[in-house]
C-alpha cells in the first residue's frame, strides 16, 4: 500500500494529464479551489509518517491481561495496564515488512508505537511469520506458540545463512582452482604428435632420392 500512496500522491497528481489538456491534477485542483500551490505530502518526517500510517493494513484486537496478541506474537505497552481492565478494543496498524512494532489506537486518540513484549525477539516480516506457521502446521503442530514460532524462524535463518556461506566458499575455491590451473594449448606438440617422428632414422650413406622437381 505504501508504494501505491506514493504513486498517487507524488507522481500521478504532479504529472501532466492529457484529459486536463496538459495540466496536472494537482494544479487543476488548486485552480478550481482557488488554493495556493502546496506540497502534496507533508513536508516533515513526522507528518509524512502520520500520513503514510493511514495506508498500513488494519486489524482489531482486544487488550487482554497479558497485552495484545497479533500473528501469535504478544505486544505490550505500559498504557495497556489501564486498557486491559475493561478489555478495551483497539485498532491496530502494522507494517508487513517489520512486525517488531505495531501502531495501536482507540477512538479519538493518536496511534502509539507498541513493540514486542519479549524484546529479545528479532524483527520478522509477515512473510516469514506465515511461512513458518505453514511449516509448523505441516509438521503436525496444532497449537502454535510464540516461542515455537520464533525458534523455527531462527533455525530457518541459520540454515539460509549456512547455505549462503557454503555457496560463497564453493565459488571461492573454484576461482582459486581456475587461477592455479596450468594453461592448456590447442597446438599439438611437434615432437610427440608428429607421426613422422616415430619413423626410422635417415641413412645419410645412401644417395638422396630424386623427386619429380629435381628430374626436370
Which descriptors apply to this entry?
six-stranded antiparallel β-sheet; 15% strand; alpha+beta; 216 residues
Question: How would you describe what is shown here?
Answer:
It is a single chain. The chain has 216 residues and is an alpha+beta fold. It folds into three domains: 2-42, no CATH class; 53-125, no CATH class; 128-175. It has seven helices and six strands; from the N terminus they run H-H-H-E-E-E-H-E-E-E-H-H-H. The protein has helices at 2-11, 25-33, 45-53, 80-83, 126-138, 146-180, 212-215, and strands spanning 58-62, 68-70, 73-76, 89-95, 98-105, 112-116. A six-stranded antiparallel sheet has the order 1-4-5-6-3-2, with no helix packed on it. The longest helix is centred in the C-terminal third of the chain and has 35 residues, at 146-180. The chain is flat, with a radius of gyration of 37 Å. It starts with a helix and ends with a helix.
Helix/strand class:
alpha+beta
Residue windows where pLDDT falls under 50 for at least 5 positions: none
Q: Rg from C-alpha positions? A: 37 Å
Gross morphology is: flat
Specify the helix fraction band. Answer: 25-40%
Compute the number of structural domains: 3
Beta fraction:
5-15%
Q: Can you summarize the main beta sheet?
A: 6 strands, antiparallel
Strand order of the largest sheet: 1-4-5-6-3-2
N/C terminus separation: 96 Å
**Strand segment tally:** 6
Average pLDDT works out at: 81
Taken in chain order, the helices and strands follow as: HHHEEEHEEEHHH
Number of helices: 7
Amino acid at each position: 500500500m505504501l508504494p501505491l500512496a506514493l504513486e498517487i500522491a507524488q507522481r500521478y497528481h504532479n504529472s501532466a494529464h492529457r484529459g486536463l489538456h496538459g495540466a496536472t491534477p494537482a494544479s487543476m485542483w488548486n485552480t478550481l479551489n482557488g488554493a495556493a500551490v502546496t506540497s502534496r505530502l507533508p513536508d516533515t518526517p513526522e507528518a509524512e509518517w502520520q500520513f503514510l500510517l493511514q495506508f498500513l493494513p488494519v486489524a482489531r484486537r482486544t487488550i487482554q491481561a497479558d497485552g495484545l496478541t497479533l500473528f501469535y506474537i504478544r505486544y505490550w505497552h505500559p498504557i495497556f495496564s489501564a486498557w486491559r481492565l475493561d478489555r478495551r478494543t483497539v485498532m491496530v496498524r502494522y507494517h508487513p515488512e517489520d512486525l517488531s512494532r505495531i501502531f495501536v489506537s482507540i477512538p479519538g486518540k493518536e496511534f502509539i508505537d507498541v513493540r514486542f513484549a519479549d524484546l529479545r525477539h528479532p524483527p520478522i516480516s509477515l512473510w516469514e511469520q506465515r511461512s513458518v506457521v505453514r511449516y509448523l502446521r505441516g509438521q503436525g503442530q496444532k497449537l502454535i506458540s510464540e516461542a515455537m514460532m520464533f525458534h523455527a524462524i531462527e533455525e530457518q535463518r541459520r540454515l539460509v545463512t549456512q547455505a549462503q556461506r557454503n555457496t560463497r566458499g564453493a565459488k571461492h575455491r573454484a576461482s582459486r582452482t581456475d587461477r592455479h590451473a596450468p594453461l592448456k594449448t590447442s597446438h599439438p606438440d611437434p615432437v610427440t604428435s608428429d607421426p613422422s617422428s616415430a619413423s626410422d632414422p635417415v641413412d645419410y650413406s645412401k644417395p638422396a632420392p630424386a623427386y619429380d622437381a629435381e628430374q626436370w
